[in-house]
Write a structure and sequence with these properties.
18% strand; elongated; alpha+beta; 2 helices
């Protein structure tokens, strides 16, 4: 693959991941669920999907 093809593929992959993440947050927010994330110090945090979606 050329560099351009790699960049195009990477861009499409990142866009697809963003769409999937937003859909996941929307579904979890509808069910009032939480998501699990790691903060800057590596500690596990449980956040409301609604709160995360509001800042997305």
């Amino acid at each position: 693959m050329s560099n351009k093809e790699i960049k195009d593929f990477t861009s499409k992959l990142e866009a697809g991941l963003q769409i999937a993440e937003k859909r996941m947050l929307e579904e979890k927010a509808l069910r009032n669920e939480t998501i699990v994330v790691s903060n800057a110090e590596g500690k596990i945090e449980y956040l409301s999907a609604k709160d995360v979606l509001a800042t997305y």
